[in-house]
Amino acid sequence: MLRSLGQVCFSGFLLVLLAGNSDGYQQFLSSSIFRALPQLITSQGGLSHANNIPFVNKEHDVYDDGLFSPLEDLSILSEAEFTHMSHPAFPHYGVRIKKTSFCDNSVKSYTGYIDIEARHLFFYFFESRNDPDKDDVIFWTTGGKNIHSQKYHYTLCPFRSRMLFVSGSIHGAWYDAIISDANGTKYFPESWNSNANVFFVDQPVGVGYSYAEYGEVVGTTEDAAKDIAAFVAIFFENFSKFKGRAFHMSGESYGGRYIPLFASEVYDQNARLIQAGLTPINLTSIIIGNGWTDPPSMVLSYFDMQCTAASVAPVIDIASCVRMKQVLPRCEKWVKESCTDLYDAMNCYAALQFCGAELAEPFAATGKNVYDISKDCEGEPGDLCYPVTAHITAYLNSTATRALLGVDPSVRSPYTLCSQPVALAFDATHDRERPGTPFHVAALLERGVRVLIYVGTYDWICNWVGNERWTRALEWSGREEFASQELRVWEVGVDSTSRKRAGRTRSARGLTFATVEGAGHMVPYDKPEEALALINRWIAGEELSPPYFGRFSTRCEIDATSMITANVADLSDKIFDFVIIGGGTSGLTLAARLSEDPSVTVAVLEAGENTIGDPKIAIPGQFGLTLGDPKYDWSFMTTKQKHSNNKELMWSRGKGLGGTSNLNFFVWIKPPAVDVDAFEKLGNPGWNWENFYHYSKKAETFHRPGKELTDLFPHIYDVDARGTSGPIQYTIPAHVHTVDAMLQKTFSNVGIKVLDDPYRGDINGTFIASSNIDPRTWTRSNAATGYLLPIQDRSNLTVLTEAFVSRIVFADNSDDQDLVATGVEFTQQGNKNTVNARKEVILSAGAIKDPQILEHSGVGRPEVLSKIGIEMQIDLPGVGENLQDHPFFTISYELDPSVKHPTLDSLKDPENAKEALRLHAEGKGLLRTGISSFTYLPLSMVKTPGAATLREKIEQEIEELKNTSGIAPGQREQLDIQLETLRSDKSPDFQFLPWPALFPMSSVTPGPGKAYMSLLGFLNHPLSRGTIHATTNDPLDNPELDPNYFEKDSDLELLVESFKYLRHLAATEPFKSGIVGAELEPGPECKTDEQIRDYIKNTVSTAWHGVGTCSMLPRDKQGVVDPQLKVYGTKNLRVVDISIVPLHIAAHTQVTAYVIGEKAADIIKSAYNTIP
Asked: How far does the signal peptide extend, from start to end residue (predicted)?
């Protein structure tokens, strides 16, 4: 019975629905299908196909083009009769083709036969509704097999496109019109030919309107693949305007077996086409919907689908589920041994028959629809649970329809949903249980053919559980990257009012898996809007679930509310396994990784708002737009800097989900290996470059720069040094290539090496860096969009915004043991609340807030706690000490107006800024700009007169500091490493970068229409140390922040020498010719060392790279946390952010913050034995 176990009747009839356009017919005639017809070599009655295309001139594998003229002009075709075509290279093949007004008259459509001697395949071709002359081409074929519960006999069911298109519902993806009742076809707005040309073939011979003169049939998918490959070649050879067009092969249901083999045959056939002087097929992707690709995975998944809530609530009684659960191990073992490990046709058949009976019979008894578990099976047995199929059958059997389509009079039998003779032929060869189909998928992926597997979540027969299992287990080079990804939500809709969740997806290196929620076996029938969005994004090369909704969306509106809340009742007085203070860069990284284990619960407290999707954050090129704005920025102020002419500086830090990853300037740079290895030297085993490199690649996905950029600048990079499946998307962005090229060449001319890739632990030299900008949307990729949004439906993670943490709560300690953190006290809207922690509290509030929160919790220096009236819980003098930052200066220039420099200066004009926003919405324009040209140099490469003597001076100063009485514990060890760094060329002392405009702090008034550049010079390893401490017991008061710039005069002297070096650079070509006149700031009047010193002290800026205030050092070396990031004196309190960095690195700190979060997650999981 159909309803018993159901049928895997597949999607063929859907494609026909696609309605075409007359131009489509023309394209078909000029396509390779027409020329390659001879390749449809066939076994009549089971004979095997020849291995090669039967070209006439096989000795030379060429043919005389003069003997063949493609029929390019489709206007000559008749609707009343077929036009016959042939090709001398394919003497055994012919084509009959005609116009038809089938379905949608707004597009051109064609039907016909490919004649392979005595066998004849019927086809349809529908042109794109959008742009037939440019749009991709999609091949669609029927699905195929029925499973009858009584004997588990599979029957091929020819749901060809025509059926689908007519019914408009059941298997269709391509259909242009639908048949929903007895009145014929109706226009279908969600047809897949909305943006693609689609053709469909009734195959194999014996299904649909295809026929054989002597009744022969094809019995294996391998044989059917030969026919299809030949058809495809002929199509493109005859419709030459389609040559080179992206080609996608698709199918549903048993198409999961067909399509991988068909595509493999097309791919392998290309070599023979080239040898014959023909154009190869541009096979771009395969698309499988609710596919039967890996029988073992599918059969074993039936337990999950009916006995768990994988789709709907369990539909089988408990006793049956227990019996099924008990038989599962036997089935898994038997199927693995006989079907997977070593294929034995009879034994595999027996295993699947037995397991199918055990796992499917109970479902058959429910009367449920095997194609949609949420519904009962309706209609008569022959209706396949869908009464509408009766209308389809009637329509396709009508004399008028047959005449309209040009069905050959030889096809006398009535149209039926399933072909018993073809089914028996396939059964005789055990085609359905043959192994290896996933291997074809893997082989296609390895050859650059993209693969989309989509599944309706209500389908039982070819369900999402089984399809997800085989895709994650697929053996190919991208397996680890693909399988390690979380399923993330994808959506449809054009704005926040229409947007809705469509399903979940994961994607890596060309393989995409996607569910369509609420759809059954026939996704385009159940969810046409979602199906069309899915296929349109796929053929456009877009991610189903980009970090921001919508391609190039200027608004970047995100609905991230499922577990992100501002309702304190969701956390107050509740208990979670882990409570994380701070929803910033490291905090969200950690939260995402810890909550991968569904058995643990995680809460995140963020003081700022949910700013995800805010265009001020999302859109690049608006550097500094959020700085100083209290919605986004804490805007901390330093004390007056006594060594810098009492200058006060604003230290911006991100407020809101994503933290400072919302505010930074997109710089994605990894430190030199020696700087990271220094962490380990200071007493932290495992904190070295090797581990850093591993975790940095885990955090990132690199996107190669597009042709638009490589045409402007010859980018060099090593893909092997980049991560390919992490949450943070990054690329070499659009940049001011004229300025970068000028600077790169100038540095090269003064002897600085040009690095091919700076991401392998060596950044000494000049290079083009990447930015954490997602080139698919040209928007910021950060902790919120990369780590949080993809898991927003995770039920074990709760994120509370606008929650200002006051202190960490410890259990009473009467026996002088290490303290146990039991929760966190926070305020929201003036009300005090507490959230409780079962396992750990983790502090990730950043280098400024971490020490303040610890001190308000009674952890810190006794004198500080006493001063603010806080009872001491733990004497920990290192809290708030060892603060280090990267100070920098700027020099400004006007650029040569004869060269068109696309600098950021133009955005100061409101009209230009408005136009830039418009262009950004199209993925174009200046707002894609990143800061990319970087140069890192050791002191030895700064060839100024004072550089050599300066090193000797600093060496002497360091030795004196080490011998100073009262030096802070741990400082000697740090100074030893800094002295080693100064003497070595492995870790650079300076960083230089060009800012493509006047820097925001500049005092120069820009002239209209002029272009400017500012050179920035940074100090990487300062000797000066600062502090951050609470000054009151009110948590709402900001702490006192004293970076103590230039406390050690050598820091200032180093910047003076780097300043003079940049001036020397400005006198070197091509820099010299690229600027107008003398520098604008500070100007030529600033000449002496003393004047330069004064200029730097007056204008010094912070790079906002503060580290060290909770240093990871031994406790007796003024450490705050140990190598496991646990706060000394506590059992379960950790610090996870860049405040733990004990000695500054020669790099921007963003990547390091992600690495700390990633490594901390594994440390914590290991402590609880939850690492998979």
From this structure: 1-24
